[in-house]
Amino acid sequence: MMLFPQIGRQDPALRFIALALVAGLAVLLVGLWHVQVVSGKRHLEAQQNQSMRTLRVPAVRGQITDRHHQPLAFDRPVYHVNAYLDELRPHFQQEYRRRRTPGKLTRAQVSALEKQVRFNTVSNFVNQLRLPVPMTLTEPQLHWHYTNKLALPLPVVRDLTPAQVAVFMERGGAVPGLDVAVASSRTYPHAAAAHLIGYLKRDDSSSEDEDSFYHYRMPDFVGRTGIELLFDQKLRGRAGTRTMLVNNLGYRQSEHMSTPAGAGHNVVLTLDLAIQRAAEQALATARPDVEGAVVVMDPTNGDILAIASAPTFNPGDFVPRIDSDAWDRLRDPQLRPLILRATQERYPPGSIFKIITGLAALEAGGLNPAEIFSSPGHFQLGRRTIKDTAPAGNYNFRRAFIHSSNTYFIHHALQAGPDRLTEMGERFFLGKSTGLLPGQEVAGQFPDRAKLREGWAPGDTANLSIGQGPVTVTPLQMAVMTSAVVNGGKVWWPRLVDRIESPEADAVNPVEQFPAARLRGDLNVNPKNLDTIRDAMLADVEDPEGTGRRAAVPGMKIGGKTGTAEVQRGGRNVDKITWFVSFAPYENPKYVVVVMIESGSSGGGTCAPVAQKIYRAIQQLERSRSLPSVTQVNR
Amino acid sequence: MFDAALTTHQRRLRPDGLLLFALLGLMALGVAFIYSARAAHEASALIAWHKQLHFRQIIWYSLGMIGAVLVCLKDYRTIARWSLVFYWGTTLLLVAVLIPGIGAMRYGARRWIDLGLFQLQPSEFAKLAVILAMAQFLSRPQEELRQPRTLLKAFGLMALPFLLVLKEPDLGSALMIVPPGLAMLYVGGVPTQFLKRFMGGGAIFVLLLVVSILFAPPKWQVIKLEDYQKRRLLVYFGMNYAPANATPAERARALSDQRRDSYNVEQAMISVGSGGLTGKGWRQGTQNALGYLPRGVAHNDFIFSVIAEESGFVGSLFVLALYATVLFAGIRIASQTRDRLGKLLAVGVVTLLFSHVFVNIGMNIRLMPVTGVPLPLLSYGGSSVICSLVAAGLLQNVHLHQKSL
After folding, report:
1. Which of A47, A50, A253 to mutate to test the interface with B (most CBs of B within 10 A)?
2. Which listed residue, A15, A311, A496, B364, has the most CB atoms within 10 A of its CB?
3. Distances (CA, A) of A204 to A55, A255, A502, B87
4. Are A51 and B273 in contact (CB < 8 Å)?
5. Which segments in chain A show pLDDT lower than 50?
6. Can you give the pLDDT at residue B218?
């Protein structure tokens, strides 16, 4: 270098100083190299860690609709007014300076004043909007948000109507730090099919395919029961990520959406909303404080058209959060509104079991439907007298059926033998669950052959034949049974979910299609015997003597069977379970309606009128749907 | 004497171009990065343009350049004759700043005299005055320097301002007096034995001091350092604040204090490191913009962090190169002088500037503990800028007024 030769040998002191300078600069150089080049990445990460925050943004939850795409559960957009604290900060500072009394303040005083200033500033700005809705924010809430979630926007007014949003758009521009944001709120129109749809619980944890670490999470939900639970993964979609840059105080500086959320899929059910609502209304008006269930099924393929259960609840109560009083009411041990009585409770079938008894006796060959049987009005089995609601007299199959004669059926059941009876019940898959709603279903009880060998008395056969004793069923199982009887012997797996659709509006093919008409088994019985049963069921409604006459609807040929089962406890009758299973139209059955009501007076008195209302509604529905709509005519 | 024409000093009409160029480069960088350091904060947009710090820095640069030019007008030998006047003048100012009415108390230290538009920091001027006085003192015949009395006087010359600055308290600035003094003693021809003994003694003293501060219980500490100075040392060595027998509550408190105090250093490191090879770009420094590098220090003590973050290793290298140019131009000037005064002056100024550069940049990368030492010409500050430029002016003076022969 040009310098060193000039220093030369004459001046060792200066050379020493020069070398010392070189050494010093070299040390700095090496140090900088180490910090900037070698460790540069590490420092960059440290800087990003301290200044970046990630926010989990949940996706719009998929819709649950009925078969005609009528929504049963969907995310409704809601509008909130949010305060952005980073924009309001200069106003906080200004207000603080204005309010501050001269002189020294203790730390506690400063802190209290700051809290007050923040809240008052936010309130003032919100008031400037002159919205007709009051601010929902309280001072403790503001302080909590300030301490824990400073970088996030703070909702100050919730759930604006579109008119109020318009008001905000007019006036909001003049007010700093406030803006309207859209969120979604799960809505359940008519609270229909609440037990099937299920309810949500707050849960903002990440799913398996998402990042597990987030600094902040926006509120999210997960299904707890019903379809919301069973298809939660598909409905929930995929959460998005928003990253924010925060400054050293935690205020948000800027943000960008690094991954947009992927909306959830839609689930299309086989339900028909109109029929569902009709069923729910009919059930609700059956009697005061009704506890019961209705199942409407399509016998041609096993599709569920409606399932109603009373008492019911509103899944909307769980959004955004259920309050403790409402929750306590939902867990009432007597009413148990959360239980889906159509599948989660098992009941003695009572006289509706006579369908199976009759079929078994017919198949056994020993029963001639035309043969007259003379009934004394009760059945004497050893020392036990089994009462009969049907009066003493002569009965053929049809008459015995429509009067629901215990004597007749017990006699022929004993004749056919318990083996035949249980074997026929097994063909209907009694005692086995239908798999419709895993976790929300019981299988019921039905004696299997082994039990017969253990200790089985004729009394048990008698009980079984009239649907009492060691047999309990769910209303859904009874719907499957009725469908099998009227459709020629096909026992279906009942189907509730038709398909899963992609959230994109223009997607043509469903993401997943569940096949209809899945056969579980065939009754393999003589079709004539099924005809006999069907005719008897028609008579039960149409004949003025029939127990089910109160289900009759002019213009529709309905067949059915009533049932009244005794519930015994400690040898005494404590309750009655009333039933009515039915189908229509007789010529070409398209609907099976099963009504079960606890503590009713009788099947014919309590349940048949409910079925009648439902069939009326179905009749009107068919008429309105077959009429060409106005738009079609004009086209 | 026989050649009157040759003995009169010849004035070189051209100043050292390399030195000038490097100084201008540093000044340009200074304005640019002070602007960047301040522009990131919203409040800065509201300040009138003539009150903005980068603009005021330009004013200080201008004043400093005027001062440097003035200094160059007269031969340095003439100026040196007035060295003692300057010396006692600055000593007076150092005493004055300690008086409550005159010196302004800021952050627990009285270092400035508030003159309205200008904050005068006497310690900066004192450093220059000490160099001038020492140079003049040591330019006597070398034999005299072997006498212990002379040596003691030389130390006394350094010690008086050192102690006064220490009293402010401003340990960093006080310590900046030592290296130039030592360098001048060494180059001036003081016997190396004395120097070695002095330095050895000093080193042991410093070691004991540091050990006693870090480890000894309070009763035993001989020299009382200010609380914040003690903490800076602890932070530098990465040691726990709480002594071993502290209660959990004390320990928790100490931890939070420690985090707060080491915050500046950590943020500076992150700033420097995250610049990487090429930096984030001018005015794109996120550490500064987001406020992680505290506003109060980003434009002066930690200006290098801003530069390093925004221009990366390449930029840091460039800054070092500019300083190296200044320093080695000074060394060249020192080597080219014929007389001892010039050489001593040049060496003193070079060492002064180098000490500042080394300590400040070292502080930014945690090679040195945090001290309040500015980076010459790049840190914002009127007194520092003017003194740095006047010091450079002295270098040019020595260069310009060379005795031929």
Report:
1. A47
2. B364
3. 11, 21, 23, 71
4. no
5. 1, 630-635
6. 62
Length of chain A: 635
Distance CA A293, CA B19 (A): 98
Q: What are phi and psi of A253, to 5 degrees?
A: -105, -50
One-letter amino acid of A568: Q
Could you tell me the end-to-end alpha-carbon distance of chain A, in angstroms, rounded to an integer?
95
Query: Are the beta carbons of B183 and A17 closer than 8 angstroms?
Result: yes
Q: Is B286 on the interface with A (CB under 8 A)?
A: yes
CA distances from A466 to A422, A517, A562, A579, A581 (A): 13, 31, 12, 13, 15
A249 to chain B, closest Cα gap in Å:
8
Q: In this complex, do B292 and A42 lie within 8 Å of one another by their Cβ atoms?
A: no
Residue pair B124/B173 in contact (Cβ under 8 Å)? The answer is yes
Those residues of chain B that have pLDDT short of 50 are 1-8, 405
Give residue-wise pLDDT tens across range B107-159.
777 788 888 778 888 999 999 999 999 999 888 887 777 777 888 888 888 98
List of residues 6+ apart from A160 with CB closer than 8 A = A78, A79, A80, A81, A131, A133, A168, A180
Measured between alpha carbons, how far apart are the two ends of chain B, in Å?
12
Measured CA to CA in angstroms, residue A30 lies from A39, A43, B315, B378 at distances of 12, 17, 14, 21
Nearest-angstrom CA–CA distance, A264 and A266: 7
Kind plus residue range of the DSSP H or E element containing A568: strand A559-569
Q: What's the pLDDT tens digit per position in A48-62?
A: 888 888 889 899 999
- The count of other CB atoms within 10 Å of the CB of residue A167 is 17
The residue type at B220? W
Interface contacts (A, B; CB < 8 Å): 130
- Interchain proximity B187–A13, CB inside 8 Å: yes
Judged by a CB distance cut-off of 8 A, whether residue B336 touches chain A is yes
Q: How many residues does chain B have?
A: 405
From A481, A490, A612, select the one nearest A542 (Cα to Cα).
Answer: A612
The answer for residues whose C-beta is within 8 angstroms of residue A544's C-beta and 6 or more apart is none
Residue with tokens 């800021």: B106
Q: Provide the angle, in degrees to the nearest 10, between the axes of the packed helices A139-148 and A107-128.
A: 110
Name the burial class of residue B52, with classes exposed (0-12), middle (13-18) and buried (19+) by CB atoms within 10 angstroms of its CB. middle
Pick from A507, A515, A563, A520: nearest CA to A540: A563
pLDDT of residue B241: 67
The distance of Cα A382 from the centroid of its chain, to the nearest Å, equals: 51
Q: With beta carbons less than 8 A apart as the criterion, state whether A516 and A303 touch.
A: yes
Residues forming beta bridges with residue A382, ordered by sequence position: none
pTM of full prediction above 0.90: no
Q: Is A309 helix (H, G, I), strand (E, B) or coil?
A: strand
Q: In the block, which residue shows the tokens 């020492």?
A: B134
**Which residues fall within 8 angstroms of residue A572, CB to CB, at 6 or more apart?**
none
DSSP string, B321-389: HHHHHHHHHHHHHHHH-SSHHHHHHHHHHHHHHHHHHHHHHHHHTTSS----PPPTTTS--HHHHHHHH
Nearest to B366 by CA among A485, A28, A187, A612: A28
In this complex, do A11 and B335 lie within 8 Å of one another by their Cβ atoms?
yes
What is the per-residue pLDDT for A630? 47
- Closest-CA residue of chain A to B357: A25
Structure tokens at A257: 């959406």
